[in-house]
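Q: Given only this backbone (261 positions), what sequence would you predict?
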């Protein structure tokens, strides 16, 4: 009589693979829905947390099944491999987010003027329940930004305010930002130009305002970027303000014969 020995299968291997695939699907669907404005940002955050939990559970189940497959020859090696690879891919961005949280300041609002930050008009009308309140200047915020982002500063251009306004609008168009305004503040010597900017990949919204103030023969420019959600921006807003002002320097130089300070 011929005896056929049946190899046992690891119970955790197929479940690990299924959970890893489900986590990846949740990330893709939630991100696409958020980009298409079908999913609000708070719900998007919770979807990502759910995906991270599923991926972590998948990796843990794969870890439970690995010794049985490796040492005792249980079936399920392919499922374990897929669970480790897919679950790891899902968890990598979350690990990067943890790294950013540990290496960037707890700021969700960045301004070149810490004493009298530029004010929002369009953003106030659009922000609703669940969004961050737009705060005024306070000592903790000023001290933290000054220490973490000392390079974030306003610009003075020795050119008329209309030239600078044209340069700001041209730079925003190059960035693909929809221009809201400009809004005249008081007299024609002060302007606010607002826009709503979405971060790459996750499309996290930040309100941005550029303030122009005419001071004699020169124009002073301040800029502010504030996240709509969360108590930290992982460096996103400083990454909006700094490069924009550098490109604005170049834009002003091309539109006028005078170079910015």
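A: Predicted residues:
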């Amino acid at each position: 009589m011929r005896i056929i020995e049946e190899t046992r299968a690891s119970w955790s291997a197929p479940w690990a693979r299924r959970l890893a695939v489900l986590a990846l699907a949740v990330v893709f669907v939630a991100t696409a829905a958020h980009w298409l404005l079908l999913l609000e940002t708070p719900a998007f955050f919770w979807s990502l947390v759910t995906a991270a939990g599923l991926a972590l559970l998948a990796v843990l189940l794969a870890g439970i099944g690995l010794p049985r497959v490796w040492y005792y020859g249980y079936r399920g090696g392919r499922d374990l491999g897929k669970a480790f690879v897919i679950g790891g891919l899902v968890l990598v961005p979350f690990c990067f987010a943890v790294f950013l949280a540990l290496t960037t300041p707890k700021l969700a609002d960045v301004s070149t003027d810490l004493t009298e930050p530029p004010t929002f008009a369009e953003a106030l009308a659009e922000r609703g329940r669940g969004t961050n309140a737009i705060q005024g200047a306070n000592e903790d915020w000023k001290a933290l930004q000054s220490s973490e982002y000392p390079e974030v500063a306003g610009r003075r251009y020795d050119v008329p305010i209309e030239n600078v306004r044209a340069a700001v609008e041209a730079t925003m168009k190059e960035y693909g930002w929809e221009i809201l305004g400009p809004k005249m503040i008081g007299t024609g010597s002060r302007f606010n130009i607002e826009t709503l900017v979405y971060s790459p990949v996750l499309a996290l919204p930040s309100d941005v305002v550029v303030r122009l103030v005419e001071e004699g023969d020169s124009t002073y420019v301040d800029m502010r970027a504030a996240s709509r959600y969360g108590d930290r921006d992982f460096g996103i807003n400083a990454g909006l303000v700094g490069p924009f002002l550098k490109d604005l320097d170049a834009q002003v130089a091309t539109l006028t014969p005078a170079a910015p300070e």
